[in-house]
Amino acid sequence: MPDIVEIFLKPEHAYDDEEIRKAVVSNKHIRADELTGCHVIRRSIDARKKPIQYFLRVEVFINEPYSLPTYPSLEAKTINPDKAVHIIGFGPAGMFAALKCIELGIKPIVFERGKQVKERRRDLAKLTREHVVNPDSNYCFGEGGAGTYSDGKLYTRSKKRGDLNLVLNTLVKFGAPKTILTDAHPHIGTNKLPLIIENMREFILQNGGDIHFNSKLTDLELENDTISAIHVNNERIPCEQLILATGHSARDIFELLHKKSIAIEAKPFALGVRVEHPQKIIDQIQYKCKDRGDFLPPASYSLVQQVNGRGVYSFCMCPGGIIAPCATDVEEVVVNGWSPSKRDNPYANSGMVVEIKLSDLDIDQYGPLAGVEFQKQIEYKSWLMGGKTQKVPGQRLIDFVQKKTSRDLPKSSYIPGVVSSNLWDVFPDFVAKTLRGGLKAFGKKMPAYYTNDALLHAVESRTSSPVRIPRDKESFQHLKVSNLFPSGEGAGYAGGIVSAAIDGMRCAEATVRVADKSQTAKS
Ligand SMILES: Cc1cc2nc3c(=O)[nH]c(=O)nc-3n(C[C@H](O)[C@H](O)[C@H](O)COP(=O)(O)OP(=O)(O)OC[C@H]3O[C@@H](n4cnc5c(N)ncnc54)[C@H](O)[C@@H]3O)c2cc1C
Questions:
Q1: Sheet holding 347-356: strands in order across?
Q2: DSSP letter at 131?
Q3: Which of 38, 45, 232, 476 is close enough to 510 for a disulfide, judged by CB 3.0 to 4.6 Å?
Q4: Ligand 1 centroid to residue 147 C-alpha, Å
Q5: Distance (Å, rounded) from C-alpha 318 to C-alpha 337?
Q6: Residue ranges, CATH 3.50.50.60, the chain
Q7: How far is it, in rounded angstroms, from Cα 458 to Cα 385?
Q8: Ligand 1 centroid – CA 126 distance (Å)
Q9: What is the pLDDT of residues 453-471, one digit of tens each?
Q10: How far, in Å, from the CA of 337 to the mean position of ligand 1?
């Protein structure tokens, strides 16, 4: 029986197999030749004491044959072309739904409004350099969805370890580094994600799936609370089962569902700014040293505070990252962050967002689209204040707290540019006040965090979907439309790459259960 050993290693030895073996031998008081093999199952940083060390949990084999760990991933099965599921959206939810369909022997037929990753990159360059927003090809829309040009952080609160491992193993199968299986805070990086996504696309195509790019869902036909056909680029396509995985920024889809009287509901979300510090400041706070050296990764943080009964918290923190223009339409400004696999940029950015409750929204006027309207108004204001370009309004952190427009601004990683503004003019008062309370409180927890070297960028508004597409808890069918399976972040059932991927797989499984049930009922 293999044993589990817990060891501490210097940062420079944490990824060195020879040093890991030496530490295991010493920990178990055995001879080196008695250790037949070992592998890391968990690796995290312990920064509580000096010197900072890595903590490793290692599976070890002593005087017994070594067996390599297995990493079960999604596999291919011969598909039955007569059994097809239509999937709208090729983000993490749509991709993993398609992969799962193939494993289940069903043909996935995917429609994605955006372009393939390589072509999409050109539109991102235009957005960043020329401020041109393509409403179908941007940081949120296109092959791989919003996750493609992200940090690729792979945390989730999902409790089902099996599902989580299946997603991580599948990412490794398609080219992600194996360290994501063991690191406590796994991430892939923007530079590595596109190739993984291309590999997934090829696998789906080679195994009988169809993927159509530049193909936007434009309408739905309903008969007796069942979708009979979808319209893609205004062309009618008969449809038996539909997985809708269009993400939280597909406002036209929410509008379409509402127009068709397919129930949707407003849902709480969060909104605020993206704050950027020099990475050095965050390293010094977290590692309590002047310089983190060559072996510790750029430090991250996670902050949360209640201010007068309202939550304010850090969101999607990107160490060594870049702030990106994430608008999906022309008259709006939206930011988010990404980082490359090495996280080697000199800035640390993070969303700093305030909870928006249903009671803050004008549901009487806008119904289930009230959250979308709330986001839109603030994004539009940001666009106006940024000079009707993709420049963003920005303010130094302490200046914001003191309601003072900054005389000048520190350097920012946000390439389109930052215009010095008073961000109190962007947000409703309750948002600005809560943000101020949060920043002050975070400055008490981490004094160096509270600095005018930090720059706030407005607006971070797409943290999660402001709409839920309600579905049955067990069957995953829409509450009224039985062959519609709302999936992923846009439907309100995921928040992040991994949870969206898990939800996509579950929706694919649900289509089979529902089809089997109706087959049994017919026969
Ligand atoms: C810059 C950035 C950084 C991020 N960093 C991280 C991170 O590090 N870790 C993390 O977990 N999460 C991160 N996220 C969030 C993460 O990307 C999302 O949670 C995740 O992608 C949601 O997956 P999804 O499949 O539900 O939706 P999406 O990824 O939004 O995919 C939806 C897809 O549907 C398509 N679509 C929309 N409308 C239509 C239509 N009418 N017809 C056809 N297709 C349509 C879109 O083009 C899109 O490709 C980041 C997001 C951004 C923008």
A1: 304-307, 310-318, 347-356, 269-278, 455-460, 392-396, 418-420
A2: -
A3: 476
A4: 5
A5: 6
A6: 80-264+470-522
A7: 10
A8: 20
A9: 999 999 999 999 999 999 9
A10: 13
pLDDT, tens digit, 9 for 90 and up, residues 155-187? 777 667 778 999 999 999 999 999 999 999 999
- Provide the token pair at 317: 């923190």
Ligand 1 centroid to Cα of residue 143, in Å, is 9
Let me know if 365 is exposed, middle or buried by CB neighbors in 10 A (0-12, 13-18, 19+): exposed
User: CATH number for the 3-62 domain, one of 3.30.40.10, 3.30.70.2700, 3.40.50.720, 3.40.50.300?
Assistant: 3.30.70.2700
**HEC sequence for 424-442:** HHCCCHHHHHHHHHHHHHH
Surface-to-core class of residue 350, CB atoms within 10 Å of its CB (0-12 exposed, 13-18 middle, 19+ buried): buried
Domain with CATH 3.30.70.2700 in the chain: 3-62
Ligand 1 center to residue 146 CA distance, Å? 3
Does the pTM surpass 0.90? The reply is yes
Tell me whether residue 261 is exposed, middle or buried, using C-beta atoms within 10 angstroms of its C-beta: 0 to 12, 13 to 18, 19 or more. Answer: exposed
C-alpha distances out from residue 206 to 78, 106, 126, 203, 446, Å: 11, 14, 32, 5, 52
Burial call 67-94: b when 16+ CB within 10 Å, e when fewer: eeeeeebbeeeebeeebbbbbbbbbbbb
| Residue carrying the six token digits 């409180």 | 441
Rounded to whole angstroms, the Cα distance separating 186 from 179 reads: 7
CATH topology of domain 80-264+470-522: FAD/NAD(P)-binding domain (3.50.50)
Which of ligand 1's atoms lies nearest the C-alpha of 144?
Answer: 49
Q: Which pLDDT tens digit goes with each residue over 190-247?
A: 999 999 999 999 999 999 999 999 999 999 999 999 999 999 999 999 999 999 999 9
Ligand 1, atom 4, lies closest to the CA of: 150
d(CA 210, CA 372): 32
287: Cβ contacts below 8 Å, ≥ 6 apart: 47, 52, 296, 299
For residue 46, the surrounding DSSP H or E stretch is strand 35-46
How far does residue 245's CA lie from ligand 1's centre (Å)? Answer: 9
Q: Is residue 372 helix, strand or coil?
A: helix
Which protein residues touch ligand 1 with a CB less than 6 Å away?
A: 88-94, 111-114, 139-142, 145-147, 149-153, 216-217, 245-247, 250, 253, 316, 324, 326, 336, 338, 488-490, 494, 496-497, 500
- The ligand 1 atom at the shortest distance from the C-alpha of residue 232 is 42
